[in-house]
Amino acid sequence: MAYEHVVFDLDGTLIDSRADLAKAVNHVLRTFGLPQLSLETVTGYIGEGARRLVQRALGTDHENRLDDGLRLFMEYYGAHLLDHTQLYPGIAAMLRQLAQRGVLLSVLSNKPEAMSRAILDGLGVLSVFRAVLGGDSLPARKPEPAGLEHLRSLTGTWVEKMLVVGDSLIDLRTARAAGIDFCGVAWGFGAEGLCAAGAQPIIDEPTALLAIVEGYRQLTPSLPPGPGARGGGG
User: Fold this and answer.
1) 148 alpha carbon, distance to own chain's centre
2) What is the pLDDT, as a whole number, of residue 229?
3) Residue 123 CB neighbour total at 10 angstroms
4) Which fold is adopted by the domain 5-16+86-214?
5) Residues 130-175: pLDDT tens digits?
6) How do strand 131-133 and strand 202-203 relate by DSSP bridges?
């Protein structure tokens, strides 16, 4: 195996959560009497946790309502985690095949850990993961490398045997900060940003990851994104 431990982003990589996140955001805006946002607009705000999502949705004119907005968001979203959210096609089979090969699997998300676990459990795949870290699991969140360093220490995996899989520049920056190889996915929220940053490889379907993990497909070094890069999944 080229890689013994694969760390996945959650939103935009394993799950399509756009509809439920957008409904939660628009619940906040509707409560405040503000205009609703499109699914596309909300999708562009995802990736750095709930507080940043709500902050972007409210905009600078209503930042004074951020704490109340975040509370409303968390209450609504917590009750509607799985209304529309689902695994991307082929994800469940890919996870099973990696686990059957003895590959350690983890999740590193900026979504709260309890919500991340509840979603994975509800979708029937929680048991395949050795660890699930959320944005509130450690003092620092992505793109800081603390989560990856914690997972490496937890599993005793060599850095060169770890692989980060994600859909966004946040994930790419996190992997680079930790000195860990990265593989992008084309089906998520931030593939255009990954392409613009020169990230390689970017796979088109989950099964393509198997060849990379097994070493049949070599990674091409990715160019690190600029310091202001953001966006994509969580």
Assistant:
1) 13
2) 40
3) 17
4) Rossmann fold (3.40.50)
5) 999 999 999 999 999 999 999 999 999 999 999 999 999 999 999 9
6) unpaired
Asked: is 18-79 a CATH 1.10.287 domain? The reply is no
Whole-angstrom Cα distance, residue 168 to residue 47? 8
Q: Can you give the chain as a three-state secondary structure string?
A: CCCCEEEECCECCCEECHHHHHHHHHHHHHHCCCCCCCHHHHHHHCCCCHHHHHHHHHCHHHHHHHHHHHHHHHHHHHHCCCCCCEECCCHHHHHHHHHHCCCEEEEECCCCHHHHHHHHHHCCCHHHCCEEECCCCCCCCCCCCHHHHHHHHHHCCCHHHEEEEECCHHHHHHHHHHCCEEEEECCCCCHHHHHHCCCCCEECCCCHHHHHHHCCCCCCCCCCCCCCCCCCCC
Residue 37 identity: L
Domain with CATH 1.10.150 in the chain: 18-79
CA distances from 58 to 25, 42, 158, 160 (A): 9, 11, 42, 41
Within the chain, all domains assigned CATH 3.40.50.1000 are found at 5-16+86-214
Enumerate the active-site residues. Answer: 9
Strands 86-87 and 15-16: antiparallel
Q: Cα separation of 62 and 39, whole Å?
A: 20
Q: Check if the beta carbon of residue 110 is closer than 8 Å to that of residue 234.
A: yes
Q: What is the pLDDT of residues 67-101, one digit of tens each?
A: 999 999 999 999 999 999 999 999 999 999 999 99
Confidence bin at 42 (pLDDT 50/70/90): very high
